[in-house]
Amino acid sequence: MRRRLAGALLVLTLAGCGAAATPAISPSAPGAPSGGAASTTTTPATGTSPAASATSATAAPTRPATGSATSDASAPGTAQLPRGGRTIFPEHRLVGFAGYPGSRALGRLGIGDLDARAREIEAVAQPLAGGRTVLPVLELIATIVQSEPGRDGLYRTRASDRIIAAHLAAARKVKGILLLDIQPGRADIVDEVRAYERWLGEPDVGIAFDPEWAMGPGQVPMTVFGQTTGAEINEVSAYLSGLVKAKRLPEKVLVVHQLSPSIVRNEKAVRAHEGVALVKSVDGIGSRAMKESTYDKLAASMPKAFHAGFKLFYSEDRRFGPLMTPAQVLALRPQPEYVLYE
C-alpha cells in the first residue's frame, strides 16, 4: 500500500531559471522521499528544465566535456575509469554529493561553486576509503519531478546540456564520475535513460534512479510514493550493458535509491548485467538507529546482483541526532560500497 508523503514545503528557486518556483516537498520527516522535488509553474513542451528553455530550442547541443582526467573514449576498448581500470568493484569506494545547481533543497552538490563542491567530495571521502581507491561521484538530479503535468503531461523536466556538461567537466577535474539521477514522474524510466544516451556514451557517466518519484497512470507526484519493479531495473541495466558492449566502454554505474521494501516490487527478479555495476542505495531520513534499522531491513532482501549503498542527509538527519560518522557507516553490514551525501 502506498503511503502518503510527509514533510514540510520549501520554496525552491532553480539556478538560472529566470522565474520563481512554486513550493516543493522537503524530505524533512522519517520515510519522506529523498532528493526533493522541483515544482515549477510552467514546463517547456520539450521536457527540458526551466534553465534550458531559453536556449535549448535554438542552440546546438553542447558537446560532452573533455579533459585529461579520462582516457580517450574514441579509442575502442581502451577507455579507463578516471582512477584506472575498467571495473568499479571491488577496487573502488564511491563517495559523492547529490543535487541540482542553485538549490539547497536538492542537496549539497548545488550549493556554491561547483568545482569547490567536487573538491570537497575528495576530502569527505578519505575517511570512507577503507582500503579502497576512492572514486568521487557527482550525482546531478538531471530529470526532476514536478507537481504540475507540463505540456507533455509527464510531471518532469530535464536539465539542459549546458548543466550536464558543466557537471561532467567538474567531475573530470577531480578524476570522478558523473551520475545522472532520474526522478521520472509519469515518464517511462527507460525512455528517460535513453534521452541521455549521448552522455552515457562517455566512459565516466552513469545513471541513478529515484523510483519513489516514478508515477503510474493517474498518479500525481507529491501525493503518493512511486514504485518500480525488478523487471524495469533489468531493462535499464540491459540497455546500459548494451551501450558498454557496443562502445567498448568501462563498466557503468546504475544506482537504485530505495527507502522502503514497497518501492521495488519483485526485487528478486533483478539480475546482473555485464558491464554494469548495480547499486542499491538505502535511502531515508532519521537518527542513526532509524537509518541502521532501514539499512538492515533492505539489505536482508537484497539480491546478489546489487552492491550496497547508503545515503546521508547533512541537514535532515541532524534533526534526529548527530550525523553518522564514517566509522559508523563502514561498520554497516554489508559494508556500503557507495556513500552519498545530500
Counted beta strands: 13
Average pLDDT, rounded to a whole number, is: 81
Which structural class best describes the helix and strand composition? alpha/beta
Count of alpha/pi helices: 8
Give the oligomeric state of the chains in this entry, treating copies of one chain as homo and distinct chains as hetero. single chain
The proportion of strand residues reads 15-25%
> How much is the radius of gyration in Å?
18 Å
Low-confidence stretches: 1-35, 38-74
For the biggest sheet, the summary is: 8 strands, parallel, barrel
Helix content range: 10-25%
Could you state the order of secondary-structure elements as H and E?
EEHEHEEHEHHEEHEEEHEHE
Distance between the termini: 27 Å
Based on CA inertia axes, which overall geometry fits? globular
The largest sheet has its strands arranged as 3-4-6-7-9-11-12-13
